[in-house]
């Protein structure tokens, strides 16, 4: 990483705005802003030059659902290491979930996180708690946290289980114009499940979590959003019926949005047996059936699913190297999200390149009411340089997270982020 207020990017193919990826241009960045877009631009004094050799350039990618673990769980991840993983994955901005210790339930914790990240190339947007200490009993200081820089509210890791509390939260959501992001899970139906309830769980003899545990809560929250006028955002959607519920709610004009993780449109519950109970395929929501995976892809294609996120959830090696039923849920995902998306969505023809980029550039920021980066003269330079065809292996040397709990470790990948530029910092990813 280098502090680079002045940069000349040579031979890039911009995608976004007036550009469709077919033109090769040079882009001059001066003082952190796009100063000039043209051809055959020459470097000026005190200007770093980088030849992109025909790589694509888009607005900086955003992951609206990550766990940076700090404060309180720095043995899993820190803000610095999580942002390093984000930069390698092509993300210039992330929104971090509040299941930390202390939880992000007051303005001072929001400001602590913002302060810790201010000198990093990746912008960190804290998500505040819905309830105090994430205990689901009383509403947190939502307005004050917004003043400190929170962009949304969630008790993620646990659902907002109390319907009256969710009603109040959504009423605040309407007043503050900020989304409530809920981990959709009916605990009475889901526990003590360790994987998706289906043929695979029955065959393996493992307690399963049925899809209806997710769907019942989504249905409740859609109705509450309709009643209050608040904005409900469904976190890490994973079942076919859940997608149908969101699709119908959108058709009815209810203020609901949703996101999906790459592992939920790529892997199924069959991976648990195939990988001999590898705990790196244990997450929550769990990997579902092929029917559910197909529904995620269909939802992305028709616009029901707004955004792609990772739910990046680091765990230390000693926490994951236990029997399957005792392992914590979650995997890292920042470094591999683009490659999985290229394989499953772009190469398959489900989405065009511009459509895929919308899911990681525009939609997350629209949901969180953040500025969308543009590729035009005079705009703040917030950019991701990437390709869609480079072959590379995701080995341990490519893991920038403090943890390495990934089902993709050792896999051959296609397409990667080559560099990011944000906050006057230029990060080139070496592999």
UniProtKB/TrEMBL annotation:
CDD domains, per the entry: DHOase_IIa
Binding site for Zn(2+) 2: 156, 183, 236
The protein's Enzyme Commission number: 3.5.2.3
Active-site residues per Swiss-Prot or TrEMBL entry: 311
GO BP term, example: 'de novo' UMP biosynthetic process
SUPFAM superfamilies named among the record's database cross-references: Composite domain of metallo-dependent hydrolases, Metallo-dependent hydrolases
Cofactor: how and how many bound: Binds 2 Zn(2+) ions per subunit.
Catalytic activity: (S)-dihydroorotate + H2O = N-carbamoyl-L-aspartate + H(+)
Domain named Dihydroorotase catalytic: residues: 59-240
Pfam families in UniProt: DHOase
Binding site for substrate: 67-69, 99, 315
HAMAP family: PyrC_classI_B
Its job: Catalyzes the reversible cyclization of carbamoyl aspartate to dihydroorotate.
Protein name, as recorded: Dihydroorotase
Organism from which the protein derives: Fodinibius halophilus
Gene assigned in the entry: pyrC
């Amino acid at each position: 990483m280098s502090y680079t207020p002045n940069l000349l990017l040579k031979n890039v193919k911009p995608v976004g705005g007036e550009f469709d990826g077919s033109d090769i241009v040079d882009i001059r960045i001066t003082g952190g802003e796009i100063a000039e877009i043209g051809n055959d631009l020459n470097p000026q004094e005190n200007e770093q030059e980088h030849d992109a050799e025909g790589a694509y350039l888009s607005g900086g990618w955003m992951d609206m659902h990550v766990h940076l673990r700090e404060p309180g769980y720095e043995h899993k991840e820190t803000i610095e290491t999580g942002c390093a993983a984000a930069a390698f994955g092509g993300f210039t901005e992330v929104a971090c979930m509040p299941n930390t210790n202390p939880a992000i339930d007051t303005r001072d914790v929001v400001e602590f996180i913002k302060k810790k990240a201010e000198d990093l190339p990746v912008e960190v947007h804290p998500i505040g708690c819905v309830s105090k200490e994430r205990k689901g009993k009383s509403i947190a200081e939502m307005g004050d946290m917004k003043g400190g820089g929170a962009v949304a509210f969630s008790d993620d890791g646990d659902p907002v289980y109390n319907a009256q509390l969710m009603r109040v939260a959504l009423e605040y959501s309407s007043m503050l114009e900020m989304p409530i992001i809920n981990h959709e899970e009916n605990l009475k139906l889901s526990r003590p499940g360790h994987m998706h309830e289906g043929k695979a769980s029955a065959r393996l003899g493992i307690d399963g979590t049925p899809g209806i545990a997710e769907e019942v809560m989504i249905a409740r929250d859609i109705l509450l959003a309709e009643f209050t006028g608040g904005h409900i955002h469904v976190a890490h959607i994973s079942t076919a019926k859940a997608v149908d519920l969101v699709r119908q709610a959108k058709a009815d004009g209810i203020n609901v949005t949703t996101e999906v993780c790459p592992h939920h449109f790529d892997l199924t519950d069959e991976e648990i047996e195939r990988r001999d109970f590898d705990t790196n395929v244990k997450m929550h929501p769990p990997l579902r059936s092929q029917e559910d995976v197909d529904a995620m892809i269909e939802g992305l294609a028709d616009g029901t699913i707004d955004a792609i996120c990772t739910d990046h959830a680091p765990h230390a090696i000693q926490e994951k190297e236990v029997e399957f039923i005792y392992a914590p849920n979650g995997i890292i995902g920042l470094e591999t999200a683009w490659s999985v998306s290229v394989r499953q969505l772009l190469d398959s023809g489900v989405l065009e390149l511009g459509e895929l980029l919308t899911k990681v550039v525009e939609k997350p920021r629209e949901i969180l009411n953040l500025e969308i980066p543009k590729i035009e003269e005079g705009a703040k330079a917030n950019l991701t340089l990437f390709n869609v065809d480079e072959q590379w292996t995701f080995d341990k040397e490519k893991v920038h997270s403090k943890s390495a709990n990934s089902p993709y470790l050792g896999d051959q990948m296609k397409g990667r982020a080559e560099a990011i530029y944000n906050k006057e910092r230029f990060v080139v990813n070496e592999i």
